[in-house]
Amino acid sequence: MEPLMEITMGDMLDETARKFPNNDAVVYTDRDYRRTYAEFAAETDLVARGLMAMGIKRGDKVAIWATNHQQWLINMYATAKIGAIMVTVNTSYKRFELEYLLRQSDSGTLILMDGYRDINYIDIIYDINPDLKNTKPGESNFPHFPFLKNVIYFGPNPTPAGMFNWDELYTMAEQVSEEELAARKATLDIHDVINMQYTSGTTGYPKGVMLTHYNIVNNGKSIGDCMKFTEKDRLCIPVPFFHCFGMVLAITASVTHGTAMIPIEQFNPLAVMDAIQSEKCTAVHGVPTMFIAMLDHPQFKEFDFSSMRTGIMAGSPC
Question: Residue 174: which residues within 8 A CB-CB, separation 6 or more?
Fold first, then answer.
């Protein structure tokens, strides 16, 4: 049995980028976003520097409320590289659930998109703090959330009042040198808490489970080992990033092995089948209802899945 890896999440990504710089890291089939491992690692460095310029320090909480966008992926590694703790928010949360999470986690920054299904994230934030509309980004006070200062928006619409735009992080990065980022990375410890996963459990409110670099890297690597991932594999990821299935069993398992990630923003059987065929995916993750939806789809027999060799269904190899 191989010894467990003693490495931070950021260093793990950078190491993979050095080994397989020209391999695909992230490929979306529904938008113009395709990055090699070298490009993806460099982009996470840039956003990490932008977050540092915003004033985010080691141990600060950065919550993200979004579906499987590239910004979610970038933020996962950008926060890890500066020692901030990413707080994952369930995309189906309503106002009272979000309020509980923000208060219980002491989140200082919230990254969000427009909304999901019938839930308007922007409206909810303005309901929580109507004064946000009348303040400059980063200067608003949330009366019931003393730690919350920054709200960062990404999406196709104009930036809502009182919020930063995600793209500003790339410009703000110019205020922080590569040497300053390297110095921050050098202060990190593999046993630092780097992620808070909220799970409802069986009683009471959701619990914030605290995970470290060491937890996440080794869990992901173990899954990748079990699936016999290599740098030649391509994993289709239709499961949500905010859950450990997406974040650890999919993203981290891929990064530890140099495997390409083919994310689906939110599950759609036709989108998954198209991604598997067009990107020649060798593996896919999902829960039983996802696979049933694909098998029952009237166009199922029109797709070529000959590239597939493995997968995970509901946490078990299939």
Answer: none
Q: Which helix (H) or strand (E) holds 285?
A: strand 283-286
Q: Are 44 and 251 in contact (CB under 8 A)?
A: no
Cross-strand partners of 119: 116
Separation CA 162–CA 217 (nearest Å): 36
- Give the confidence band of 314 by pLDDT, cuts at 50, 70, 90: low
**What's the pTM value of the predicted model, to 2 decimals?**
0.95
The tokens describing 204, both together, are: 């009471």
Q: Which residues contact 97 (CB under 8 A, 6 or more apart)?
A: 90, 206
DSSP β-ladder status, 115-116 and 61-65: unpaired
What are the tokens at 68? 């499987």
Q: Helix, strand or coil for residue 17? A: helix
Task: Report the range of poorest mean pLDDT among 148-152, 169-173, 195-199, 311-315.
Answer: 311-315
Question: How far apart (Å, rounded) are the C-alpha atoms in residues 293 and 68?
Answer: 19
Predicted pLDDT at 311:
83
With tokens 């789809």, the residue in question is: 297
Positive or negative torsion for Cα 289, 295, 299, 304: positive
